[in-house]
Amino acid sequence: LIQRRGKYPIQQDFQKNWETYKKGFGNLREEFWLGNENIRALCNEECILRLDLQDQKGERGFGLYNTFKLSGNNYRLTLSDFKGNI
Q1: Are the beta carbons of 25 and 32 closer than 8 angstroms?
Q2: What are the Fibrinogen C-terminal domain coordinates in residue numbering (predicted)?
């Protein structure tokens, strides 16, 4: 899990600067961003990225990228082979 957002007692502000996104922020039990450095460490080799979404009406959707990779100091994003309904 690299990000979670939802209806929690304390809403996390996701309007952050680049340095904060690099390190990560939030509460892992509620809303958070894991951090670009941590994500790159986990997915410097190819990973699979799954997105699970739910709108305010409770309708759900998902997306799956069979190739997900972050590389380099600028966190170059590689995505391919998408499947899903979002």
Answers
A1: yes
A2: 1-86
For 51-62, what is the mean pLDDT? 95
Greater confidence, 73 or 19?
19
Q: Is 27 exposed, middle or buried (0-12, 13-18, 19+ CB in 10 A)?
A: exposed
Q: Where are the domains of the chain?
A: 3-84
pTM attached to this predicted model? 0.86
Residue among 64, 40, 69 nearest 53 (CA)? 64
**Is 73 a residue whose pLDDT tops 90?**
no
The sign one gets for the Cα dihedral 33, 36, 41, 42 is positive
Fold observed for domain 3-84? Gamma Fibrinogen; Chain A, domain 1 (3.90.215)
Tell which residue, 62, 44, 45, has the closest CA to residue 53.
Answer: 62
